[in-house]
């Protein structure tokens, strides 16, 4: 299967590596020149669950890829999805499947501007990864990768990708409810990510604060209202808050990614979490003042730190 | 006039000093042992608008004062008002005037538990002050001190205090609308104080952020709704937001007091600003989700920093 990885950061490299080892014809796409040069010259140096390897891989910039693909995994940052889709539109054919495992809300709508719905497969993953240097990455976890066809009639297409991910060791799983999982993950990121970034603190300390119940309930109630009205997804507020506390207690003294974004002067994905809920609530004629204000505060923090919006 | 200063921090010392220089019989009250000893031993060392002086002054702990007072100026932190009132209840007689110039909301209600309304005089001041060491303070400004009787029939009492403040150089002014001024000041503290504390930034940077309009409008709208329903005070949202921006531009690269509280591991006055609006909104049957969440976030920040609530 001819597969492109659109956005070959740490997670993209991990997926591309395991797919290629499984015999797929993989091309990594990325915009980072140093990373491209390092992988072209020395191969990808990758550590998967502690096991190091070096793998020769094809990598180029998105607009340099000429051939139509069978499948494309998008692995950009949320705000990079639209710019990436513009750059790879020419390799998306009538049957090219586009698989989206990004965190955050609203990506299906972005994809539909570039891909027929029947070819879109949405999903979530709990693999984690990091970049140690250009061309040097690590990849950790046991999956799963949950997938579901965006078009209800296209289950077969999703099952085919699941099969490929399974045989590659990426632990693909067919899900009947990817949208629910996506919303639940968004609740995690919209609470612990946003609060830790705002309060400049680790998850354990934020969740030990005296006002955590009020903060979680306030945010989750707004996520829940929009999930119901927009996607007919039921997120029980009390159950979700209990789940978040459970996740937090297992993660502990850790700075989540949005905090790391600010610490490293990168724009956050807040517009695709609390910001997406605030924006949707306006569209739906309800209100999400807390999500709006958290989005405002995070953007103010970006501005104060001199971080400019991503435009690649 | 026998006057006690209940809470002789920087501002209290400034008032006490100028009142005593004007011939009033002043006693400073405070709980800080080092400060009491320094002033008792060496006198108060004070710099008023750049001019240094040393003044012998009477100072003791609140419960050590035995005589009934003619007037008491309260100068505690907001959360210190109630504990202070308990400690000085025994020197409040049938005609003792209690003058409250504290920032924040809800103080009249606290005072009414200890003082007859006819004896309460509410006010605001723009004098600023600081403590450099125990017994060493500075005091700056040109006033004014706006005063108004809490009981509409007691204008004469307020005018008498205004007169004393005028002759002392404290620039007393009778106000027909102290409650409006108090709400307007609370809007300043509930926006720039709270936002700078949360975003760990100076006023100029917070007000230069791309989301400042949304943040200000959101907070001020909730203050405005409660001011109207609770006190029949009209705070026009657009005018107030314009006023806040104006104040911010004149203050510039400055960390406001709530930021300094957190930086010095002191509890903030958030419960008497955004917290008071959230609490009142519940009582009034309306909603103030933004003020509630900002209060939650500031308390979470206090908890993360290991700051415990003031109980003196």
Automatic annotation (TrEMBL), chains A, B:
Judging by the UniProt lineage, the source's domain of life is Bacteria
Ketopantoate reductase N-terminal domain mapped to chain residues: 3-150
Q: What class of enzyme is it?
A: oxidoreductase
Name a single GO biological process.
Answer: pantothenate biosynthetic process
Which residues, if any, are the signal sequence? none
Reactions catalysed = (R)-pantoate + NADP(+) = 2-dehydropantoate + NADPH + H(+)
- Extract the PANTHER family matched here: 2-DEHYDROPANTOATE 2-REDUCTASE, 2-DEHYDROPANTOATE 2-REDUCTASE-RELATED
Instruction: Tell me what this protein is called.
Output: 2-dehydropantoate 2-reductase
């Amino acid at each position: 299967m001819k597969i492109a990885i659109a956005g070959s950061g740490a997670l993209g490299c991990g997926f591309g590596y395991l797919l290629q080892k499984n015999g797929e014809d993989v091309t990594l796409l990325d915009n980072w020149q140093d990373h491209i040069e390092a992988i072209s010259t020395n191969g990808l140096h990758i550590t998967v669950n502690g096991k190091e390897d070096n793998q020769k891989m094809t990598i180029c910039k998105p607009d340099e890829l000429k051939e139509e693909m069978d499948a494309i995994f998008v692995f950009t940052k949320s705000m990079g999805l639209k710019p990436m889709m513009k750059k790879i539109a020419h390799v998306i054919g009538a049957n090219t499947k586009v698989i989206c495992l990004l965190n955050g809300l609203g990506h299906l709508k972005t994809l539909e501007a570039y891909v027929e719905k029947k070819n879109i497969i949405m999903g979530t993953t709990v693999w984690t990864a990091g970049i140690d240097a250009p061309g040097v990455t690590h990849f950790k976890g046991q999956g799963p990768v949950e997938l579901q066809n965006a078009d209800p009639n296209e289950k077969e297409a999703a099952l085919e990708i699941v099969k490929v991910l399974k045989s590659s060791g990426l632990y693909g799983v067919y899900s009947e409810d990817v949208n629910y999982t996506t919303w639940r993950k968004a609740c995690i990121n919209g609470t612990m990510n946003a609060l830790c970034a705002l309060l400049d603190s680790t998850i354990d300390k934020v969740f030990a604060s005296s006002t955590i119940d009020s903060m979680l309930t306030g945010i989750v109630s707004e996520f829940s209202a929009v999930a119901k009205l927009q996607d007919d997804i039921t997120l029980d507020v009390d159950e979700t808050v209990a789940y978040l506390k459970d996740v937090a207690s297992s993660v502990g003294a850790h700075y989540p990614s949005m905090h790391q974004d600010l610490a490293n002067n990168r724009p956050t994905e807040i517009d695709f979490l609390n910001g997406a809920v605030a924006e949707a609530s306006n569209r739906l004629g309800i209100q999400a003042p807390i999500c709006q204000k958290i989005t405002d505060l995070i953007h103010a923090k970006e501005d104060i730190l001199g971080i400019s919006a991503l435009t690649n």
